[in-house]
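User: Can you predict the 3D structure of 3-carboxymuconate cyclase? Sequence below.
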Amino acid sequence: MSRISLVRAALLASLCSFSFATHAAAEELGAGVVYTASNGLNGNAIIAFQRARNGLLTPLGSTPTGGAGTGAGLGNGRGVVLSADDQWLLVVNAGSNDFTLFRTNERGLVALTKVPSQGKTPVSIAINGDLIYVLNTGSDSIAGFRLDEQTGSVAPLSNSVRPLSGANVGGAEIAFSPDGKNLVVTEKTTNRITIYGVEPTGLPSATPKIYSSQGQTPFGFAFDRERTLLVTNAAGGASNASSVSSYRLARDGSLSVDQGSVATNQTAACWIAVTPGGRHAYTANTPAGSVSAFEVGARGDLILANGVAASAGSSSKPIDLAVDEEGRFLYVLDSGWQKINAYSIATDGSLTPLASAYGGLPASANGLAVR
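Assistant: Sure. Here are the predicted structure tokens for 3-carboxymuconate cyclase:
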């Protein structure tokens, strides 16, 4: 066996043993796992935490992705994602222009595949069935891939690279619509939302539909129901000027406004998460050190329930956030305190901080996914 093969075998062996411990512990002691990425300049790694049934987290360890991060903030959303069935975990390696796919199974084993992103500086990734799409913000483009769900291998989707609306647009996030018919990308610099149709072949439409955002600096987004799109507007970081907008996405990719910008009364709302029932939404307001809570109506109408629904203090810098699949807990990646904060979600959407939060994360940590 060659030296390269030995190194790869050793890496896979260490990866499998780590993952077995992670998922076995989760099954025995808790409800699931929370993942983030180190985004380290000299090597990216997935950092995992056991999620107990009461929402508290216990560190489980880390495993390398085989790629590199940037060691700094990415200005992105969905840098770490899980597939709908929790079988696949994907993470971008923005510093090495690739992404990594982890496969989990009932025995807790994980396989590793690292794939060039077909562009520069991948910051966001999306998966729907066997289709994977990556947002390469450094090359202002998206690129598609096909996942073999039997073997875990990933192949570039021929002729899938598409440009965004222009150059230096500040692409922040990519995601499929819930039905998989469209791909949505937010562009911070141009104040645009770019939408591609997804053909039966898996290819994106040759020309995207481009819409002006209702607010400045559209950043993170989430779907609250099948076709209602909620988008944060960071307002260029202007003090207390950020907002959330609600849109209706048609199957043909047409975007109409459900409700214009609803103020958070906080600074730089960048990330957003929605409860599974679609009744409550939360934004992370990084410079303000706060989390805002919204009520979401049946038609996508928004009401600010609490501009400061949660805060971890003046040194807090909340970035990525995620809700568990039962809608009981909100997890917030805090780059200021370098930890993950956990909150219980009441039936009215109010938040209560849990007794402890796990610290010790690198300042560069990026992305958050919960299973």
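The domain at 3-370 is CATH 2.130.10.10 (Methylamine Dehydrogenase; Chain H). Helices lie at 3-29.
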